[in-house]
Amino acid sequence: MSYAALKKHAASLPGATEDIKWGCDWVASVGGKMFLVGGPEPGPWDGCSFKVDEHRFLELTDVPGFIPAPYLARVKWVKLQDPKALPLADLKALVERSHALVLGGLSKKLQREILHGID
Questions:
Q1: Which domains does the chain have, with CATH numbers?
Q2: Which regions of the chain are under pLDDT 70?
Q3: What pLDDT shows up at residue 3?
Q4: pTM value surpassing 0.85
Q5: Contact, 35 vs 98, CB < 8 A?
Q6: What are the CB-based long-range contacts (under 8 Å, 24+) for 72-80?
Q7: 114 burial class (0-12, 13-18, 19+ CB within 10 angstroms)?
Q8: Contact 1, 84 (CB under 8 A)
Q9: Helices 88-104 & 3-11 angle (0-180, nearest 10)
């Protein structure tokens, strides 16, 4: 799995922004809310974390290479520790779903602005 490809994919999603938080973690956000965290940046990534549907949380944390995300497991985030745990296409789909889950938690007005450029 290529973290660079996953990072590029996340940055291409509607309304996605990128920044560095906590001094070394690369973060993709939508509407100011995180949907993907990876790090350290710069340097070789030691994993990435993202939000998942509640019904997928237990499933994914049973997959070798995934664990509940530190500090965020209570809100159904998982951490990928082994880049070989899933194919890149599957990880891209999970990041897209994370983006959609976070976007869905934003106000309807902000969702419209992000998706359609409507005020």
A1: 3-114 (3.90.1150.30)
A2: 1, 118-119
A3: 81
A4: yes
A5: yes
A6: 75/51, 76/51, 76/52, 77/49, 77/50, 77/51, 77/52, 78/49, 78/50, 78/52, 79/47, 79/48, 79/49, 80/47, 80/48, 80/49, 80/50
A7: middle
A8: yes
A9: 30
The pairing of beta strand 16-21 with beta strand 33-38: unpaired
Q: What is the pLDDT of residues 28-42, one digit of tens each?
A: 999 999 999 998 777
Helix, strand, or coil (residue 16): strand
Q: Which run of H or of E encompasses 77?
A: strand 77-80
Token pair listed for 60: 């994914």
Strand 16-21 to strand 25-30: parallel, antiparallel, or no bridges (unpaired)? Answer: antiparallel
CB of 17 closer than 8 Å to CB of 102: no
pLDDT tens digits for range 42-51: 777 778 999 9
